[in-house]
Specification:
This protein has one domain: Dehydroquinase, class II (Rossmann fold). The protein has six helices and five strands, in the order αβααβαβαββα. It has a five-stranded parallel sheet with strand order 2-1-3-4-5, with helices on both faces. The chain binds 1,3,4-trihydroxy-5-OXO-cyclohexanecarboxylic acid. 1,3,4-trihydroxy-5-OXO-cyclohexanecarboxylic acid binds next to loops.
Length: 148
C-alpha cells in the first residue's frame, strides 16, 4: 500500500519524441550518433529511472510529430523532443511547442553548433524550457534528470 502511494505521488509521465531518421540510430553515421539503437538505449533508461513513466514515439512525418505534441499537452507531464532535421526547418513544430502547456526540453545527440551552418538554426529553442545538445545519447538522460 505504502509503495502504491509512493509511486502515485512521485511518478512523472514523460514522453521522448524523436523526429526523422532517428529510427536508424545504431546504423546511421555511428561516428556522429553512436552504435546503440534507440530501443537498446530506451531499455537502459527505463530501468534507470523507475520513478518515471517513460514513453517513446518516433516519426519521420512532421504532422505526426505535431499531433503527438498536442496529445502530450493533455496526457504527459513533460516532453523530451529531438525533432532531428525538422528542428532546423519546421515552423509548424516550433508553433506546436509554443502552443502547448507542458514543458518541452529540446535535445540533440550531436553538437549542432560545430556542424554545418544550417544546423545552427532551431525553430524549437525559443519556446523550449531548456536545451541539451552534444552529449550523445546521454543528452536524453540529462533532459530526464532536469525534469524530475
Ligand atoms: C540531430 C541533429 C540534427 O541536425 C540532425 O538532422 C539529426 C539529429 C541530433 O540529435 O544530433 O537528425 O537532431
Amino acid at each position: 500500500m505504502r509503495s502504491f502511494f509512493y509511486t502515485f505521488i512521485i511518478m512523472k509521465k514523460l514522453i521522448i519524441i524523436n523526429g526523422p531518421n532517428l529510427n536508424l540510430l545504431g546504423k546511421r553515421e555511428p561516428n556522429i550518433y553512436g552504435s546503440l539503437t534507440f530501443t537498446e538505449f530506451f531499455e537502459i533508461i527505463r530501468v534507470k529511472y523507475p520513478s518515471v513513466e517513460l514513453h517513446h514515439f518516433q516519426s519521420n512525418i512532421e504532422g505526426e510529430i505535431i499531433d503527438k505534441l498536442q496529445y502530450a499537452s493533455a496526457n504527459f507531464d513533460a516532453v523530451v523532443l529531438n525533432a532531428a532535421a525538422y528542428t532546423h526547418t519546421s515552423v509548424g513544430i516550433g508553433d506546436a511547442v509554443k502552443a502547448i502547456e507542458v514543458p518541452v526540453v529540446e535535445v540533440h545527440i550531436s553538437n549542432t553548433f560545430n556542424r554545418e551552418e544550417f544546423r545552427h538554426k532551431s525553430f524549437i529553442s525559443p519556446n523550449a524550457k531548456g536545451i541539451i545538445i552534444g552529449f550523445g545519447l546521454q543528452s536524453y538522460e540529462l533532459a530526464i534528470q532536469s525534469l524530475i
